[in-house]
Amino acid sequence: MPELPEVETIRCKLEPLLTGRTIVRAEIVDQRLTRPRAADELAAELEGEGIAALDRRGKYLLFRLQSELTLVVHLRMTGSLRHRRIGAEECGHERARLELDDGTELVYRDVRRFGTWQLLAPRELEDYLEARVGPEPLAAEFTPGLLAGRLAGRRTALKAALLDQRTLAGLGNIYVDEALWSARLHPQVAAGSLSRQATLRLHGAIREALALGIARQGSTLRDYALPDGGAGSMQNEFRVYGREGEPCERCGGAISKARVAGRGTWFCPRCQRRRGSENQSGVT
What we know:
Layout: H1 4-18, E1 23-28, H2 39-46, E2 51-57, E3 60-65, E4 70-74, E5 79-85, E6 94-100, E7 104-110, E8 116-120, H3 122-130, H4 144-151, H5 158-163, H6 173-183, H7 196-215, E9 256-260, E10 263-267
Antiparallel strand pairs: 1-6, 2-3, 3-4, 4-8, 5-7, 6-7, 9-10
Helix pairs in contact: 1-7, 4-7, 6-7
């Protein structure tokens, strides 16, 4: 599933191509994409709209329209967006298409069809996002104190808490595993047990992992691609994710795999020891 770095990369690539453009024709062929609204109804409402800006909130892409409506796109597991000239070769599994006034089109493709498109008014958008996503981990407002407050009193596993989008916006399986390795924290320790030192390490590790993911234009493992069809390279930087049995580059121990919150989870048992509480320095 595309996480914050992948969605931010897509936003950065598309923003200069789409801002100021007008949608001259919209076609949505997958009825599941817009439900409960009818796909034809949403498509008709998009036609003639100007694209004023392209923003991101967590894993959501926000197409700000000149009418003040916002097209909210969530790629879910296998969704991707391609920008190309009208009439170019199709890429398969195409579910929607927006033709623009400069002779290009934005195509949405989705193999497993879990993605969603919604068209929301300003107050609807505010309520929708407030109920679903927490603070942005790369924003200036995201401080160690804010992180400590989001985790305080929580007995759930630390990884489970970080995967909860209401805790922080945009984190997913890959970048949580990478951040926890960097911070030397076991994924199953209680979220509310972190010491001040451990919280400081985690705060820095989250920001570092996400920033590196953006710099490498995301992780291409299977379905994720850039709007021009290219691939990201963050997968070449993984310290633990997908590396079961390989040596930890920090201590040489073998990387292990477990399931936490129903997700495959990679960590180093030697560097990321589970002690039942993280009220310790984390130095091994």
